[in-house]
Amino acid sequence: MTAGSTSRRTPRTVLVLVGCVVVLALVCLISLAVGSKPTSLPQVVDALTGRPDAYLATVLDARIERTLLAVGVGAALAVSGALMQGVTVNPLADPGLLGINAGAAAAMVSASVWLGVSTGTVASAWVALLGGGIAALVVHTIGTAGDTGASMVRLVLAGAVVAAVLNAYVQAIALSLPRHFDNYRFWVVGSLGDGGLDQLRAVAPFVVMGLVLALLCASSLNALALGTEAAAGLGVNTTLVRTAALGAATLLCAAATAAVGPIAFVGLAVPHIVRALVGLDMRRQLLGCLLVGPIVLLGADVVGRVVLRPQELMVGVVTAFVGAPILLLAVRRLGRKAQA
Fold first, then answer.
1. What is the pTM of this model?
2. Which of 324, 262, 273 shows the shortest CA–CA distance to 296?
3. Residue 228's pLDDT is what?
4. Every domain of the chain and the residues it spans
5. TM segments (predicted)?
C-alpha cells in the first residue's frame, strides 16, 4: 500500500470508527429500552439522568448489566476471530478452531455432575475458562509441534480431533445423566439472560490481557500476512507472533465462553464486516472489531428479546441465524476470487 493510499484511507477509517461509536451508543440505548416490558427511549434517558421509580430502576439495573456483559463478550469474540483468521491466513477460521467451546462445555458438564456447580455463577465462569484454556493449550501443543510450515494444517486437524472427543464426552454424560443436562442445556446455546456484572468481573482480567496482547501483535500480523519467509525477512519472529496471537485469541474466546456460553458466528462474521469497512490493516481491524462485535451481539440480543415477547430467544440462536448467510456469502466471495 502506497503512502498516498494510506493517507487517503486514514480519514475514512476515522470516520468509520466514529460512526461505529455512534451506532454502538444507540444500540446500547435500545438494549436498555427493550425487554419483556418495553420502555421508551425518553424514559430510559430520564431514568439515567434523573431519579426513576423503583420498578424502572430495578429493570434498568438488570438491563445495564446485561448490556455491559454483551459489550465485553462481543468485543472479545470479534477480536479473537480476527486474530484466528490473521494467524491461520484463513478467512473462514473462527475461535472454535482451537476447541475452546468444546473444552468449556466438557468442563461445565464435569463440574455440574461431580462438583454441583450451577451455570450462571462466578464459579461456573472459572470452570469454563479453565476447560477452554486447557483444550486450547492441548490443540496448540499438538498443532504447532515440529515443522512450522505444516503447523497451521495440523492446528486445524488437532482442533477438530480434540473438539470431537470432548463433544462425544459431553453427549455421553448428557445421555447417561439427563438430570444434569437440564442445567447445562441453556448455557450451551449461549445466552445473556442470566449474565451480569459478576460474570463480567470474573473474566474481565483475561479479556484485558487478551486485548493488550492482541494489540501488541497487530503490526507483526500485518507482516505475517505477506508469508512466513517475507515476515522473517522483515525481522519478525513468526513463531513467537503466532504463539502470542493464538494465546490472545484463547484468552478472549475462553473468557467470553465462560461468561455466557458458546456463541457461534460472531468471531467468524464480524472480522469480514470490519475488513469491508476499514481494510486489511490488522491494527484497524482490531479497533473495528472492538466496536462492531458489541454492535452485532447486542443487536442479536435485542432481536431475541423482541421476536418471542414476552419470552425471549437466546442470543446464540439469533447469531447462528444471522451468521449462517454471512458465512455463505464469504464462501461464495472466496470462490469467485479463486476463479479470477
1. 0.86
2. 273
3. 76
4. 3-339
5. 14-34, 67-84, 96-117, 124-143, 155-177, 202-225, 245-274, 286-307, 313-331
Tell me the torsion sign for CA atoms 300, 306, 312, 313. Answer: negative
Q: Which residues of 78-100 are buried (b: 16+ CB within 10 A; e: fewer)?
A: bbbbbbbbbbbeebebbbbbbbb
**3-state SS, residue 235:** coil
What fold, for 3-339?
A: ABC transporter involved in vitamin B12 uptake, BtuC (1.10.3470)
CA-wise closest residue to 258 among 177, 306, 190, 166 = 190
Q: Which three three-digit cell numbers place residue 24?
A: 454502538
Cell numbers of 149, please?
A: 510450515
φ, ψ dihedrals at 89, nearest 5°: 50, 40
Q: Is 71 strand, coil or helix?
A: helix
Q: Return d(Cα 213, Cα 211) in angstroms, integer.
A: 5
Pick from 285, 257, 287: nearest CA to 271: 285
